[in-house]
Amino acid sequence: MEIRAFGKSGIEVSTLGFGAGHIGGHNFTDAEISNLLNSVVDIGINLFDTARAYGLSEERIGKHLSHRRNEIIISTKCGYGISGVNDWAYDSVIMGIDEALTKLRTDYIDIVHLHSCSLEVLRRGAVIEALNKSVESGKIRVAAFSGENEALEFAATTGKFGSLEFSINPFDQRSIDKVLPITKENSIGVIAKRPIANVPWKFDEQPYGDYCEEYWKRMKKMNLKLDLDWLEAAIRFSAFTEGVSSIIIGTSSIDHLKKNLKLLEKDKLPKEIYSMIRKSFKENDDNWIGQV
What we know:
Elements: E1 3-5, E2 12-14, E3 16-19, H1 30-42, E4 47-49, H2 57-65, E5 73-78, H3 90-104, E6 109-115, H4 119-124, H5 126-136, E7 140-146, H6 149-157, E8 163-167, H7 174-178, H8 180-185, E9 189-193, H9 213-222, H10 230-239, E10 246-250, H11 254-264, H12 271-284
Parallel strand pairs: 3-4, 3-10, 4-5, 5-6, 6-7, 7-8, 8-9, 9-10
Antiparallel strand pairs: 1-2
Helix pairs in contact: 1-2, 2-3, 3-5
């Protein structure tokens, strides 16, 4: 597993991170979750990306990995869902971080993102102030933003965030040109979400209501003919786009993660294939905004 510097934070992250949304439901036993999470660490993945909104995810990471705290980097998200407090208020961030610290059974959290709040909320500044206050107090190491489009572009230019999380894959490329140049110039860590675009290639006909519907339509319009399957193309495209620190893939299967690791071992895509994917997106882009 390649380990990369995470901006100028001093943190180092595995190229492949674990998206912990899948472990938030009630369809797993404690033993299954413990085995999965510890196996993830055992195969060399150190970045765990969770959120307040992911059900039992934070609690399970705390319960089953607190004894390996020095081996993992925890990324979570906040800003909403605090009883008696307005979403996206100063106190919602402060209290959300305190609750996450308890659930995760840790004295500090490595990376805390504002979870897809609006441009208006960012401009008001209270949530950014709350994040940075938490950095000063030692509760978190890196203040971060997770989101897309205008809010993401604004966040990238504020100088207030040490990490950004946004969608990068063959069918979601606008931020490669609009945001990555800024993150590289300012040494901001980048977590690429949806690197495999919610696997739209699994559908022969257009899905309706499925999370990958928009990506399926983009894929069909781009109509690329590659000499490798889409899973491999997407993983290698996203992970080796210059400026990406780590890609996050969510799964409840350790075998799937091992397969993804094997694909990452193939390193960058051939230049001609990478260029073909970039060119096709730009030629077909029909207001293809980042998917939140």
